[in-house]
Amino acid sequence: MNQAIPVFVINLARRTDRLERVADHLATRGVSWQRVDACDAKAVAPEVLDRVITPGGPLGDLGFGDRACTVSHTYAWEAFLASGAHYGLFLEDDVYLSADIALALTSDTWIPEGTKAVKLEKFGSGISRVLLGRAIGTVDGTGRKLHRMYSRHVGGGAYILSRAGAEIALGARGRMQVPVDHLLFNDTVSPIFRKLQPVIVQPAMATQRHYEYNSDISAFGKAARPTGWKLKKRKIKRGLYEISQAHRQLLALVTGRAKVTDIFWQESMGEP
After folding, report:
1. Which of 158, 210, 218 has the alpha carbon at shortest distance from 184?
2. CATH number, span 7-263
3. Where are the domains of the chain?
């Protein structure tokens, strides 16, 4: 099957187990891909991180893990821009994709004109309620709908960027203050969310909850989780950011441009 959208898999060199798993998974899905060497939080020099993402910001102090992960995604965006393709799909190596993913990659004509970011992933477990606009398209051959995002739904496991989207994201290097998934998909803290105007696939085509891998970044984030009054201060600060876009969201809701929708993952559109 011809593949119009190239796929970039982000993987640490020392995590050959994760590479083998994702390689087998993508083979079963009929997807061609290329590996992007991830930035290793255990070995990276602080100045490498500083050139891309600050040590803290709206979400509080950031650990080396989240910062290195963000740097890794910038490497993948650069690889995509060097490819000459119009759109690229970016995957973290613990992602699990729907059975119809290959159909979405055979063409990029289903992506609405001007769309700079498409989120394929349902993040986390349980119910995720997101403010979404009306359907503006369908993913080729799948029946899955595309909706503009009017509120945050984070997670960087699987998403598509256009060339313009990748250039916008890379243009934030040195000024990024939040991890990559918040940069792309959190309207309350991202300086580029409104430029990207991301859309999300519903039902989602990807999840990171399928495998129980140990994380390479969790230990590096512990220092970024405060306690006591610092934790209370961070919660208050985050709360203020959470309501910062309430006026826009409320306007979209009352005018009927958007509605609250439950995001869910679905393996196959043939499922009940």
Report:
1. 158
2. 3.90.550
3. 7-263
